[in-house]
UniProtKB/TrEMBL annotation:
Pfam families membership: F420_oxidored, P5CR_dimer
Annotated Gene3D superfamilies: NAD(P)-binding Rossmann-like Domain (3.40.50.720), ProC C-terminal domain-like (1.10.3730.10)
Chemical reaction(s) catalysed: L-proline + NADP(+) = (S)-1-pyrroline-5-carboxylate + NADPH + 2 H(+); L-proline + NAD(+) = (S)-1-pyrroline-5-carboxylate + NADH + 2 H(+)
InterPro entries: 6-PGluconate_DH-like_C_sf (IPR008927), NAD(P)-bd_dom_sf (IPR036291), P5C_Rdtase_cat_N (IPR028939), P5CR_dimer (IPR029036), Pyrroline-COOH_reductase (IPR000304)
Subcellular localization(s) per the UniProt record: Cytoplasm
Broad class of the protein's primary localization: cytoplasm
Gene: proC
PANTHER family: PYRROLINE-5-CARBOXYLATE REDUCTASE, PYRROLINE-5-CARBOXYLATE REDUCTASE 3
Limits of the Pyrroline-5-carboxylate reductase catalytic N-terminal domain: 4-99
Domain Pyrroline-5-carboxylate reductase dimerisation: from-to ranges: 163-267
Role noted for this protein: Catalyzes the reduction of 1-pyrroline-5-carboxylate (PCA) to L-proline.
Annotated source species: Vreelandella malpeensis
Name of this protein: Pyrroline-5-carboxylate reductase
Pathway: Amino-acid biosynthesis; L-proline biosynthesis; L-proline from L-glutamate 5-semialdehyde: step 1/1
EC number per UniProt: 1.5.1.2
Amino acid sequence: MANTITFIGAGNMAKAIIGGLLDSGVSPSSITATAPSDDGLAPLRERLGIHTQTDNVEAVKGADVVILAVKPQIMKSVCAPLAEAVQAYKPLIVSIAAGLEAATIDGWLGGGTALVRCMPNTPSLVGVGASGLFANPAVSDAQRALATELMEAVGIVEWVEQESLLDAVTAVSGSAPAYFFLMFEAMEEAGVAQGLSAATARRLAIQTALGAATMAGQSKHDPATLKRNVMSPGGTTERAIAHLEDAQLRDTIKGAMQACARRAAEMANELSAD
Ligand SMILES: NC(=O)C1=CN([C@@H]2O[C@H](COP(=O)(O)OP(=O)(O)OC[C@H]3O[C@@H](n4cnc5c(N)ncnc54)[C@H](OP(=O)(O)O)[C@@H]3O)[C@@H](O)[C@H]2O)C=CC1
Ligand SMILES: O=C(O)[C@@H]1CCC=N1
C-alpha cells in the first residue's frame, strides 16, 4: 500500500491495526501515530520504526488516510482542532470509535468529509481481525477500495449499507474477542477445579477454540452440524451441551449482544448531544 496513514491515538486498537499492517508488509515509514505525550510513542517509534507525533494537526497534514483512534468521549475535543487541516488536505477519514455517528464526526471536522466508520477488533494485531465498514456519501469508490485494502491487510472486511448496523457489528465482532477471552478464563478455572494445571487447561482450551474456529471457517457444514458431529449419542458432549442449553446459554449470549448494541446506540445519542 503506497498511501500514508496517520493514526490519531496510539492505544490498544491503533497498536493492533498498526502491528497487523506492518506484518502484512506495509512500510513503517508510511505510518504515523499520535498521542498527547511521547512516553507511549517512543516504544512504537523505536520498536516498530513508524513515525510519531504529539501534534495531531501536523500529523494530519499530507496524510492520505487519517484513522481516528481515540476514545469516543474525547473525539469532539480531538476533532475540532483538526478541522482546518482536514478541510485543506481532504484525507479519507476513518473513525474506529464505537457508537459515534458519521454525521456527528463530520460536523466536528467542518463538514463535507469523506468518512468511513470502521468497527475493527483487536485480533487485527495477528492478522485475524474482523471489521465492519460503513461509508458516508462523500466517500468515492476509490476511497472505499482503499479502506477495504487497509482493513483487509489485518483481517476480513464486511461493508454495511445502513449505519445503524455497525452497532450489531460491534456486538458480533468488535466487542466479541472479550466474550471468547471470558470463555477461556472460565474453561481454565473449570479445568483447574478438575485437577489440571492452569497452564495445561489454558493451552488446551485456546488450541481447541482455534481448531473449532478454523474448522467452522473451512467446513461446508454449518456450526450446528459440526456440533452434532462431536456429540456421540449417550456420550460426554451431549451431557455438556444439554447443561449449556438448560442454563440458557443462547439467551445469555443474545442478552449480552443486545446490551452491547444498545450501549453503542446510547453512546451515539450522548455524544452527539455534546
Ligand atoms: N479496544 C478495542 O477492542 C476496540 C476499540 N475500538 C475503538 O477504538 C478507539 C480507541 O480505543 P482503545 O484503543 O481501546 O483506547 P485506548 O485508551 O487504548 O487508546 C486511546 C489512545 O488515544 C490517545 N489519546 C488520548 N488523547 C489524545 C489526543 N488528544 N490526541 C491524540 N491521541 C490521544 C491515548 O493516549 P494516552 O494513553 O497517552 O492518553 C491512547 O493512545 C475507541 O474509540 C474505541 O471505541 C473499536 C473497536 C475495538
Ligand atoms: O468496549 C468498547 O467500547 C470498545 C468498542 C468495541 C470494543 N471495545
